[in-house]
Amino acid sequence: MILKNEGITDVFFDLDHTLWDFEKNSELTYKKIFSENKLEIDLVDFFKLYVPYNIELWKLYQEDKISKEDLRYKRLKTIFDQLNIKVDEEMINKLSDDYIESLATFNHLFVDTIEILDYLKPNYKLHIITNGFAEVQLKKLKNSKIDHYFQVIMDSETAGVKKPNAIIFEKALEQANAKPEVSVMIGDSYEADILGAKNIGMHTLFYTPKEDYVKVKSHIINELKQIKNYL
């Protein structure tokens, strides 16, 4: 409960995997677009390979080691090859476009998201800092009906850099007219959200449903409602 005594004024959230249930919405999106494009793919086999590989590619994207286009193409091409499914380049590009177009039409949030936003809203200014693509993130917020909670929405394409780069946090703080010493970042990525925020002097709450994180320099929450213990 240390944060309750720190005079926090501003709370910054990550979006995907923190408030917005990325994996569930992504699975529903692929089920839809595979069906629409008449592709018979075993979704269990597909996601078993896709989920960890997509995380790996996103890490490379955050480190500026691959482009957005490479991420979108490779995460499908590589998995189709591993499953021995023949899909030509034109269809992969179409699926990639269909995925981005359809993703924000599914809007499952994590349990307690609305409850915790309602709890925080009267006492703090709320904001988003996300590495997601600009054209998708705002749709996610609007379609899931949580956009009205947030004053500043900073994405990596607008900032020109990705978390954990200090610049994206500094730009978000500047837009929010907030100081790092009275701001807290809440997110699921220890490297991108927590270390990135701590490096510029922000407080942090590391959100992870797992309980195998022990040696981390942050308060840890396993459920969103545990934010009430700190704020």
Task: Note the main attributes of this structure.
single chain; 231 residues; alpha/beta; six-stranded parallel beta sheet; 46% helix; elongated
Structure write-up:
The protein is α/β, with parallel strands linked by helices and 231 residues long. It has helices at residues 22-36, 43-62, 68-82, 89-103, 113-120, 134-143, 156-159, 166-176, 190-198, and strands at residues 10-13, 125-130, 152-155, 183-187, 203-207, 219-221. It has a six-stranded parallel β-sheet, sandwiched between helices. Helix 3 (68-82) packs across helix 4 (89-103). The radius of gyration is 18 Å and the shape is elongated. The mean pLDDT is 93.
Q: Beta-strand level of the residues, as a percent range?
A: 5-15%
Number of strands: 6
Low-confidence stretches: none
- Overall 3D geometry? elongated
Residues in helix, %: 40-55%
Structural class determined from secondary elements: alpha/beta
How many strands, which pairing sense, and closed or not: the largest β-sheet?
Answer: 6 strands, parallel
In spatial order, strands of the major sheet run: 3-2-1-4-5-6
Topology, please?
Elements lengths: L9 E4 L8 H15 L6 H20 L5 H15 L6 H15 L9 H8 L4 E6 L3 H10 L8 E4 H4 L6 H11 L6 E5 L2 H9 L4 E5 L11 E3 L10
Parallel strand pairs: 1-2, 1-4, 2-3, 4-5, 5-6
Summarize the structure.
The mean pLDDT is 93. Helices cover 46% and strands 12% of the residues. The chain is built from nine helices and six strands.
